[in-house]
Amino acid sequence: MKHPRGRALLRPLLVLVMLALVAAAGFLGFGYMRFTHAPLAIPSAGDTIDVGRGTSFRDIVADLRARGVTRASPWYWRVLATRMGVAGRLHAGEYALPPGITPRGLLDNMAAGRVIQRYMTIVDGWTFVDVRRALARADKLSQVAAGLSDDEVMKQIGAPGQFPEGRFLPETYAYVKGDSDLDILKRAHAAMAKALGQAWAGRATDLPLASADDALVLASIVEKETGRADERPRIAGVFVRRLQQHMLLQTDPTVIYGMGAAYAGNIHKADLSQDSPYNTYTRAGLPPTPIAMPGKAALEAATHPAPGNELYFVSRGDGSHVFSASLAEHNRAVACYQLHRCQ
């Protein structure tokens, strides 16, 4: 039988233990609530965290703690993830650590797979050389094509034997860390095939074009001749009428493309007489391939050229052109705007 005095001493001790437990629980609860709502300690703007495939939750928290982003107990992180219902559902990828983000915000982003997206733009009128240079400079884009020839690149993206020029649609393409240059090229190639197919299917009647590839070639010439939206159908109309009348196209951009590295910024009379498959001053019809990446507007112009009787145009020097129906009118425009001998 226990002594009454011992029981009397035990009660206060139990009360003290209970109070200590309540205080500890309150302290932990307050600390947990403060943890869930307080911003993480982001060392610098632009910081990210990269979650690899198969990375455990414990490793993610350990990485954050090692980098000084959080000092909170891993237990806090585990409780928060459990209460949010995201434990075991965090996606691999690269995530932004913007100033002000909280642990709850970061876990929510990881559970939703809101990885950082970057962007690469193929510009209307670029050549394939330009595209490859831009891909090589793209931030955190895996470089697979860098050591491949153009032919090998086309084989890798599922278009073996196809000449690459003109085959990639000018647009802005989003990508995430881990994507490769070939991934973007595959998407741009598929986008161009779709855009070209749609333009060709809805083309105007009586075009002097034998195939969609011919339309792509013409669109690339239109793209290089003008950057003005209002002029594209008109310029396409000039070239279509010249083809119909079996006239030489006589367009400088094709000559320049055929010159390749020999082109130094100026085109001379001797260049226009130097025969090559791309010299439309010496060879009839369209050149053998596109000379650039045409945008959707150029594809539309090539397949829906403006009607009229104009057969010539010359640059005013301000990005616009003077159009003429006769050689005499054209020669006067050349004298005025190119030779500065306006009458």
Blueprint of the fold:
Blueprint: H1 4-37, E1 48-51, H2 57-66, H3 74-84, E2 93-96, H4 103-112, E3 118-121, H5 128-137, H6 150-156, E4 172-175, H7 181-201, H8 212-225, H9 232-244, H10 252-259, H11 269-273, H12 296-303, E5 312-315, E6 321-324, H13 327-337
Antiparallel strand pairs: 1-2, 3-4, 5-6
Helix pairs in contact: 3-4, 7-8, 7-12, 8-9, 8-12, 9-12
Structure description:
- The structure is a single chain.
- The protein is mainly alpha-helical.
- The protein has 13 helices and six strands.
- Strands 1-2 form a two-stranded antiparallel ribbon. A two-stranded antiparallel sheet has the order 3-4.
- The model is unreliable at 19-28 (pLDDT under 50).
Note the main attributes of this structure.
single chain, 343 residues, mainly alpha, two-stranded antiparallel sheet, 13 helices, 6 strands, 47% helix, elongated
Could you give a quick summary of the protein structure above?
The chain is mainly α and 343 residues long. It has 13 helices and 6 strands.
The amount of beta strand, in percent, is 5-15%
Level of helix content?
40-55%
Please give the order of strands in the largest beta sheet: 1-2
Q: Structural class, judged by helices and strands?
A: mainly alpha
Radius of gyration: 33 Å
Number of strands: 6
Distance between the termini: 130 Å
Which quaternary structure do these chains form?
single chain
Question: Strand-and-helix sequence, N→C?
Answer: HEHHEHEHHEHHHHHHEEH
**Which spans have pLDDT < 50 for at least 5 consecutive residues?**
19-28
Mean pLDDT: 90
